[in-house]
Specification:
The complex is a heterodimer of chains A (about 170) and B (about 180). Chain A has one helix at about 1-15, and strands spanning about 30-35, 40, 45, 50-65, 70-75, 95-100, 105, 110, 120-125, 140-150, 160-170. Chain A is mainly β. In chain A, strands 1, 3, 4, 6, 8 and 10 form a six-stranded antiparallel β-sheet that branches. A four-stranded antiparallel β-sheet of chain A has the order 7-9-5-11, with no helix packed on it. With about 180 residues, chain B is mainly beta. In chain B, about 10% of the residues lie in helices and about 40% in strands. The chains are: A mainly beta (about 170), B mainly beta (about 180).
Amino acid sequence: MRLALAILGAAVCHADTATTTQAVTVEIVAAGKLSVQVALPLAEQTSPFGNFVGTLPVNYRMRTSAVGGSGSITLQAAGEFSPTGGPTLAGSALRYTCGGANLGTACAGTQVVSQAAQTPVVQVPSGACTGGGAPCSAADPASSQLQFVLENDPRFSTGVYTVRLVLTTSSL
Amino acid sequence: MKHLRNVIVAAAVCLLCFTANVNAQFAATGTTTLSLTVASEAALHIDSPTTNLTTATTVFDNYTGTTNFTYKIRSTKTGGSGTITAALTTPFGSGGPVLPSGSTDLQFTCVVSSPGIGCTSAQKVNIVDAGTVATFATDAHSARAGNSGSVLWTLVNDPAYETGTHTATVTFTVSAP
């Protein structure tokens, strides 16, 4: 009896071991996001009647599809200058140029800020990605700059004027 | 402990104070509010840097001449004003016209386009007295390229003057406080 009990105890201590595998997959899709400062004051370049100027840095992270992909950053005004009596977007008062994009290509020439349509900031090609070095960009985040110019027209009434600008990323 | 907590709270509030102009979080879109402060301003360009005063006769008729200028103005929207003045900053040299305080030998009249209000009577200019060329009301605005004006000079032809060329400097000043 004692021997049988010992054998029974030995049978309980030795468990079976089994393994199984499961495939884990992730679909990496195109993505993009950006960050800008929440306020940009323009300053008069010279006095009297010098243009108002200011520079807006744009930081962004983007991944575009390897085949047939693309990405972009665009800008559009969310409304007219407020209050009335000062500059107007309808009068093409606010313009910008783009510079120094270290991922993709900055916009060429002078752009007129519009409330009705998006205007270009950066264009990113297919197979692009941010950070970590080749094949992605060295900088993380990537960056570009917008230089704004607004003519100091004597017809503006004195006061403080503001306009909201929205930058949007798109990546395929 | 309470003091330490208060210090920590104060530090956190101060950190929030500095976030007003820092970047927002990364997102698919970003918004910035662009602003500018438009102040009162004034500018002046003398279109004829040298004004020659001439007389048409040889019988002591007065000398006359015209100075043309272009001005830009934006006066304050509420309670604003502006002026253009002309002052004798360097008098004629020895042997030329003498223009002491109160002298009316050198005078001008004005033609100034709106929004400027040109002088309505002859203005005397001497070593003390400056003449007012134009005034501006509150919320005055020139055209984008500026507006025109002229000063028509008259100088008494005093026999006491020596023959020769005599030069003085008149300084025009525009302001919009």
